[in-house]
Structure formats: C-alpha cells, structure tokens
Predict the structure.
Amino acid sequence: MVGSRFRYSKWDGSQKGFELDAFDVLGQLTDDLLYHGDPMASLRRLMQEGFEDRNGERVEGLREMLEKLRQERQERLENHNLGGVYDEINESLSEIIDTERQGLEDRAALADMQLADPDTSASDQRNAELAKETTQNKQMQLGMMPDDLAGKVRSLQNYEFESAEAQQKFDELLDELRQELVKQQFQDMAGAMENISPEDMARMKDMMAELNNMLEQRENGVDPETEARNFADFMEKYGDFFPDNPETLDALLEQMAQQMAAMQALLNSMTPEQRQQLMDLSNQLMEDMDLNFEMSRLGQNLQQMFPDAGWQQSYDFEGFDPLGMADASRMLQELGQLDQLEQFLQSATSPQELAEVDLDQVRRLLGEDSAASMERVAELAKMLEESGLIQNKEGRLELTPRGLRRLGQQALGDLFKKLDPSRIGGHDIERAGIGHERAFDTKPYEFGDPFNLHIERTIRNAITRTGGGTPVRLTPDDFEIEETERQVRSSTVLMLDLSLSMPMRDNFLPAKKVAMALYSLISSQYPRDYLGIVSFSEVAKELKPADLPEVSWDFVYGTNMHHAFKLSQQMLARETGTKQIIMITDGEPTAHLLPNGQPFFSYPPARETVEQTMAEVMRCTRAGITINTFMLDPDAGLRGFVERITELNKGRAFFTSPQNLGDYVLVDFIEHKRKLLQGRGR
C-alpha cells in the first residue's frame, strides 16, 4: 500500500487559507477597547473603518462602502441624461409617420400612373382620382400632427393608416409603451406577463381596487385575522401578478411603494416639459379611466404608509448618453437602491444590523469585494460572542472573563513585540534549586504552585484511587508536590493616574495598556503574586482587573497621590511577600484629602498637598513598600517631586514617554522578579 505523499514549504506570507477568527477580531479592537472600554462602540468603529485580516486582505468598512455608493451614483448621473425617454418615443413615432408617408407616396404614384394611362377605364380613373385625393388629405393630416407625444399618439390612434407596415409598427409601439409604463409603476407585475392584454389591464384594475379596499379597511381598524384572511384570498386570485410571492400584505405594499416611488423619481428628475409630456402620454395610453383612478388612489395610500420611500427624490443627470424609457426605469431603480443602501449604512449602529442587507443587491451595486466585506463585518459580534469573548447582558455587550484575559494577553503581546530581547531575556530561571529550600513536606498540587512533583506519593494516590492494576493512569487530582520553606511572592499595587491631563497629552491609552499587560503578565506567569490597581485623580479608587477595560479618565481637575498612597498601603497591608507600588503619572500632586475626607485641590500645588503626600511616602517606606515611579512627559516640577520620593523611599524613577512606557514597566517588573528568585536561590 502506497502512503500519501505531501510537500511542505516554508511559510512566506503568500499562502492563503486562514480565515478570520474571533481572536483576530479582538486583536483589531485592543487599543480601542482599552481606550473606551465599550465592546459595542469598538465594534461600531471597526465596522466604520474596516481592517486587514491575517492574510493582509482588506475588509472594507462602511465609510469605504459609502464612498463607493457615492461614486456609483455620481458616475450614473455624469454619464447619462433623461432626454432619451422623450426622444426614443418621438423617433419611433417619426419612423412610423415616415413609413406611412412612403406608403402614401407609393399609392399616389400608382394613381398618377393610372391617370396617365389612356387605356384606364373611366371607373378606374375615378378610383385613381379618389385615391390621389385621399393620399393628399392624409399627407395633410400627417403634416398637421401635434408636436407633443400625447397629441401625436392620440392623432395616430384616430388615423386610418394606409400602410399596413406603419399600422403594425404603431400597434407594437403602443403595446411596448403600455408595457413600459406598467413596468415602471409595477415592475414585478410586468415581469410576470410577457404581453399585457386588455383582459390583463382589466384584472389589474380589479386587483388595485381590492388592494385599496384592504388599505382603507386597515385605516378603519380591521381585525388582523380578517386582514390575513382577506390577503390570502387576494393572493389566491391575483398571485400571478406577484412572482416573488410576498407572504404578508405589508411586504407586498412595501415592494409596490418602492416601485411607484422610483417612477415618481423619474418624473421629478425630468424637465417640466418632459414630465408633462410623459404624464399626458401615460394618461393617453391608459385609456381606462377607472384604471387611472385606482392607480392614483393606490399611489396616495402608499405615500401615506411609506412617507420615506423617496417620493420627493430627484436626480440631476448631467451626461450626454440619452436613456430610453426602459433604461431610464432601470437606472432610476438602481439609484433608488443606492439611496436606500446609503441610508441604511449611515444609520447602522452595530454589525448585527448588516445581516439584514440583501447581499445580492450589494454585489450588483458595489461588486463582490464589498459584498464579501459586508458579510464578514456582519459576523463580528456573533463571532466574538460564540467564542466566549463577549456576552450580551440586557442588550449591552460586555467582555467575559475569558475576553478580559485575552485582551490583557493582546496588550502584553503588543508591548513585548516592541521590546529588545536582549533587554528582557527569558522569564524562567534554569538553575536547579532556585526559588525555594526543600522542607520534605508535601501537599496536593494547586494551580500556580511550582511543579516540584513528589513521584512516590503521586503514584500512591493514583493506585489508591483506582484500586491497583497496570498501567497506572494519573489525573491532576493525584499530583502531590514538595513544599518549600518559603515561596518567593511579590505584592504589587499599580497606581494609575486618570486625571484630565492624561488624555490631553495622549498618555491615557499607553498607561491603560500597561495596566492590562501587567495584569495579564502576573495572572498568567506569576499567579501566586498579588496585583492591586488604584486609580487617582481628584480622589483615589480601588479597581478590579475586570473593571479595567471600561475605566476612563475623570473629567475633573486634581492629581491626588496622597489618597492613592494611603489606599495602596491599606491594600498591601493585607498581603505578604515583597511589596511595591508602581506609579504611572504625568503630573505633580495637586490634591490631597482633608481630615473630613473631602478633597482639596490647588494648582500650582499647595505646600500642604506636597507635605501630606510626602508623609504617606514615609509611611510606605516604614512599611517596607518600595515605590517605583514612571513619569510621562515630566516637567521640572514633577521631576523635582519624584526625586524627593526616590531619595526618601530608595525606589527608582523612570523618565519616559508614551511610546516606551511599556518597555520600562514590564522590563523593570520582570527584572525585579528575577532578582528575587536569584536572591532566594543563593
């Protein structure tokens, strides 16, 4: 048997096949989620702006699609004009008249030949003279035809053609014009009938009369069950007019409203002369006054029901390519669809709404790329929800715990990508024995414990659980590890400045990204460590990691480090191990708490504020808490203040920028952990 053979090649980025997944989407949202904290708002912005997938292929946003819509509309308006609607009919009528003239000339020539022939009988001469007189009268009638379309059609309808060919052409033209006029009003009906016979026109009149009656019954409060029954009877009788087979009265009415509104847009877009001629022609062709009445009545009813269907819409055609009636009807319908799609996209507030769009229509109007992009954008929220990254709570999208962890990992990954590997090195210490002294006691394994497995007791646990036998199968519940005399543990509080100056100086997003990355680093790599988060502006507040995505700056003045240090001490007092505070700020202290618990603000900083803050620094120092400060865009005042903290506390100060804040914080934290581990291992 010959095995399958495969060829492998190095990944060079040109290969395709990886589809967009939920993690890709969350990666696109990372910065926006960190800045605003609202999954729906972030998805809305992604929907508007678009993005590139992992293959580097562009997924169009709504702004690009809207621009395409405007270009498509402009192209149609700049290249065409509606004069062809009038000219095409006029040319056809002129051709018919010319054919008739030629027939009259042929008959007159034959009469002249008969009159000139001496062998022509007296009876034939009288007939020839009569024929010549008749042709002269008809030539005069043709010469006196009105200039307007409706007048020409009316005159030709009352005219007795001499030419059978001209008569046939005129009858065919009338049938074609009736077909086109009905098609403009009710495209689906016309599509269902190849030729509209007088019987069809009569049925159409009856159909519209019943439809108008149902609308008026609805206005008078007809019972829904009665309306449904009446609609079923209506469709049984007239369903052949509607090949799309609408399931409800509302669906049918909406369809008809769109088509009648497109006809009205055609009239609105014409010059007054063109519009009047087409309306007169329509009235002339639709000779049945009852049909005209029912059509007008239906149009009024539909305008009341669907006032936003575009009844007042008009278009300024500026091109040179004239459109005939059929082409103009199709063009106006496309323009109406472009307008409706534009309105829908402009009002869309969430990706889920895009699932309602007719993708086939988008494909026709904007092309395959836009249709594919819209389909992918419509799935964004569903993809995140099905992957357990977000959840819908009472109509509001929120990050799940899994989504929060992933967001932190994404922020951490973004920062690590920027770091020089030589600065950070590996996270693990390879030398055996580092981190603990053996105490020869054991305990069941818990998540976060060093995996110092005690083989004998682990196997004994498995045998006790299974009752013996081979092979011995282990489960995590069987694991037992050796305890150490002392575990290396760090307790950290991150003090995050959320005063108004942070977003004003573009420092907010980098600082919040560092907070998420630090949370992810500690929870994943050092799960036994403690991380507390304190935000401070006018006052300080303790934050939970789950609150981080929605945290925003405070629209108040004040940088209350005094309260933040006090709160951080209280949080660290409950913890063990090496304790430190990491403070990220872009300004010196301008607020402190008064004895009554109310904040006091002053800028420039009041002496009392600085003294109260330094007093808390001294308390931290006496409690063995190290303070490391990361200053963003520091001025002289902040530099001087932080230098005093460093002098008293013996911590470190970093003068940094938003671009490299993450480098400093993460490298410093990991180096701090490395030194602790190395110190315990000596």
In short: Residues 201-316 form one domain. The first helix runs from residue 22 to 36. Confidence is low (pLDDT under 50) at residues 1-11, 13-18, 418-439.
